[in-house]
From TrEMBL:
The keyword Protein biosynthesis does not apply. Its EC number is 2.1.1.-. This is Protein-lysine N-methyltransferase LOC107827772. Transmembrane segments: none annotated. Belongs to the class I-like SAM-binding methyltransferase superfamily. EFM5 family. Residues 1-13 have a biased composition (Basic and acidic residues). Keywords: Cytoplasm, Methyltransferase, Transferase. One of its GO terms (biological process) is methylation. Residues 1-21 are annotated as: Disordered. One of its GO terms (cellular component) is cytoplasm. The gene is LOC107827772. GO terms for molecular function: nucleic acid binding; protein-lysine N-methyltransferase activity.
Length: 241
């Protein structure tokens, strides 16, 4: 079968520049080159993700491959287990617990691994997670309240990991959180970049914890975990100003 690389090798056409006769790639060759480079990038991303899972050990939860085009970056095992343990501790402290996981499939997977009976709903754009059946809800942050009415005001515990580090994205995710929150005093956890620290406080009344989340793929942005409640000694407590 002819590969993209073969196509580039055989189909590269050179067009002369009208001014100085400098050879230039034809539009067909440029498109073939783009396809080849995209395929190479996907292969590298898959290899990196597989290596990260192998490094974390046999007990790590298997997830689909990260799709960088969807701004997907899975938590490392320590982060996923730490946040899952916190959520499960909160579940034990309230009657009729229910957890909404907004754009954080790693957390959902670890919650179900540790306690298969925990009532949790994954709100996620990537339809590969439809494998979770009725506990998957398609979610596009651009339509923050375009969700089933059965989810409205149903969750006393909400964990969100907005896909982008923009104010617009956080504002829309905040709308979704408001839609999902059960009346009373719900527990909110937000995992996002440190650059959002002021916005997290302004939009949701959250404070950063000492615990620092990390991802399987090394990211350049520093990430933080924010809560609307004092976790005490868990998560290292709230960071002191």
């Amino acid at each position: 079968m002819e590969t993209a690389k073969d196509t580039i090798h055989h189909d590269v056409g050179l067009e002369a520049d009208g001014d100085d006769d400098t050879p230039a790639l034809s539009s067909h060759a440029l498109e073939a080159l783009k396809e080849f480079l995209d395929e190479q990038n996907r292969a590298l991303a898959e290899a990196s993700s597989a290596a990260a899972v192998e490094k974390q050990g046999e007990d790590a939860v298997a997830l689909v491959t990260e799709d960088w085009r969807l701004s997907q970056f899975w938590y490392d095992r320590e982060t996923a287990e730490t946040v899952a343990a916190e959520v499960l501790a909160l579940c034990q402290s309230i009657d009729s617990p229910a957890v909404a996981c907004i754009a954080c499939p790693t957390l959902y997977a670890y919650l179900k691994k540790i306690d298969p009976n925990v009532p949790a709903q994954l709100l996620e754009y990537d339809k590969r997670f439809e494998q979770y059946g009725s506990e998957f809800t398609f979610y596009d942050y651009n339509q923050p309240e375009d969700l089933p009415s059965s989810l409205k005001h149903s969750y006393p515990i909400i964990v969100a990991d907005p896909p982008y580090l923009s104010r617009e994205c956080l504002e829309k995710v905040a709308q979704t959180i408001s839609f999902l929150m059960r009346p009373g005093e719900p527990y909110l956890l937000l995992l996002t970049g440190e650059v959002q620290i002021d916005r997290a406080s302004e939009l949701l009344g959250l404070r950063p914890c000492v615990f620092r989340p990390h991802h399987s793929s090394k990211l350049g942005n520093e990430f933080r975990l924010f809560t609307n409640y004092d976790p005490g000694t868990r998560l290292g407590g709230w960071e002191q100003a």
